[in-house]
């Protein structure tokens, strides 16, 4: 058996790979400081825009929150009370974004039915439902106390 270096198979090592990689294969460098904040904000706004354009539930809840915003000034008896009312609306939107992210990940994993995929989507939807209950509780109790007092 010939064991000279030329007859051996080359081991798969990083050194045996080509040095030049395409631009698509090179991960971008992490930015720092204000540049990082700028890029993070830009990606967040892009996510909000995409959710608004593609998710009817997020669109409905956004319009509902905007419609209730002026009512919060009338209902609130203190700045803390106002913050609670606004926070409950934001919580619904946050849960809808998380639910949308879960659905996107599950859909990316595969379109075929799987029990765990259905469970993940159902639990995300249940989280939105509980957020809506919390908002209804905050707004309903505020309205109740405002009309009775």
UniProtKB/TrEMBL annotation:
InterPro entries: DAGK, DAGK_prok, DAGK_sf. Mn(2+), Zn(2+), Cd(2+) and Co(2+) support activity to lesser extents. Keywords: ATP-binding, Cell inner membrane, Cell membrane, Kinase, Lipid biosynthesis, Lipid metabolism, Magnesium, Membrane, Metal-binding, Nucleotide-binding, Phospholipid biosynthesis, Phospholipid metabolism, Transferase, Transmembrane, Transmembrane helix. One of its GO terms (biological process) is phosphatidic acid biosynthetic process. The active site is at residue 96. Residues 1-22 are annotated as: Disordered. Catalyzes the ATP-dependent phosphorylation of sn-l,2-diacylglycerol (DAG) to phosphatidic acid. Involved in the recycling of diacylglycerol produced as a by-product during membrane-derived oligosaccharide (MDO) biosynthesis. This is Diacylglycerol kinase. Pfam families: DAGK_prokar (PF01219).
């Amino acid at each position: 058996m010939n064991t000279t270096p030329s007859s051996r198979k080359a081991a798969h090592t990083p050194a045996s790979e080509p040095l030049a990689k395409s631009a698509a294969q090179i991960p971008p460098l992490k930015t720092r400081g204000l540049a990082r904040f700028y890029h993070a904000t830009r990606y967040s706004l892009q996510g909000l825009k995409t959710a608004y354009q593609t998710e009817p539930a997020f669109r409905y809840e956004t319009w509902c929150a905007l419609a209730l915003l002026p009512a919060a000034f009338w209902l609130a008896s203190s700045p803390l009370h106002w913050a609670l009312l606004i926070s409950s609306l934001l919580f619904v939107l946050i849960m809808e974004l998380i639910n949308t992210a879960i659905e996107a990940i599950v859909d990316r994993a595969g379109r075929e039915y799987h029990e765990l995929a259905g469970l993940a989507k159902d639990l995300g939807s249940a989280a939105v439902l509980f957020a809506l209950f919390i908002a209804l509780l905050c707004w309903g109790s505020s309205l109740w106390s405002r009309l009775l007092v």
